[in-house]
Amino acid sequence: MIPCMYDRILVPTDGSAGGERAIRHGISLAEAHDADVHAIYVVNTASYGGLPMETSWEGVRDVLTDEGEEALDRIKELAGDRLANAAVIDGSPAKRIVSYAAETDCDLIVMGTHGRSGVDRLLLGSVAERVVRVSEVPVLTVRVGGSDDSDATPSDEEVVTPTPEEPSGDAPADRPDEPTDRRANVDGA
Q1: Residue 138 exposed, middle or buried by CB count within 10 Å (0-12, 13-18, 19+)
Q2: Average pLDDT for residues 108-125, to the nearest whole number?
Q3: Domain ranges in the chain?
């Protein structure tokens, strides 16, 4: 049995289909550590500050809140009795995720990241990156947004496991009958 490292795991969601991979990972960790799951959806009020006054903020907020409730309903289905709290909150997503984790004494934040780089990251930013930079609570990021997010298990190509006699994971060049890399079969087959 794994010693209990975590009592409370925060799983923030943006409601995206790809984000379910991170949600499932967080719930699996909660099950392994007998921990409670906290789930939040942050309505990003910071990005709507520039709306013209004639725009109905309440209408926009209502739509976003409904999306958040739907996203949290999915976590409720997946987490079952592990779910200690689910909330839709307003504010800047990174700031609210960090403050919620601190206020509720969460031991871990598990969240998705798209792994953007270069211009995409510069233009779009990364909530996960901002959370990692400022959170005092450990953050586990789970890569989402790949070609097939329905599979929460890494493929053979994504996992390279060193063997005991070769700690670096490189196969010796003088053994041509050996594979040039060693991949773990994560499906157990």
Answers
A1: middle
A2: 71
A3: 8-150, 153-189
Higher pLDDT, 122 or 64: 64
Q: Are 81 and 35 in contact (CB under 8 A)?
A: no
Contacts of 180 (CB under 8 A, 6+ apart): 171
133 φ/ψ sector (left φ>0, alpha ψ -120 to 50, else beta)? alpha
User: What CATH number does domain 8-150 carry, 3.30.70.120, 3.40.50.620, 2.40.110.10, 1.20.1180.10?
Assistant: 3.40.50.620
Specify the 3-state DSSP secondary structure of 101.
helix
Which pLDDT does position 146 carry in this prediction?
A: 60
Q: What share of the chain is helix, strand, coil (3-state, %, to 5)?
A: 40, 20, 40
Q: What is the token pair recorded at 5?
A: 């490292």
DSSP codes, 11-76: EEE---STTHHHHHHHHHHHHHTT-EEEEEEEEEGGGGTTS-TTS-HHHHHHHHHHHHHHHHHHHH
Least confident of 22-26, 49-53, 64-68: 49-53
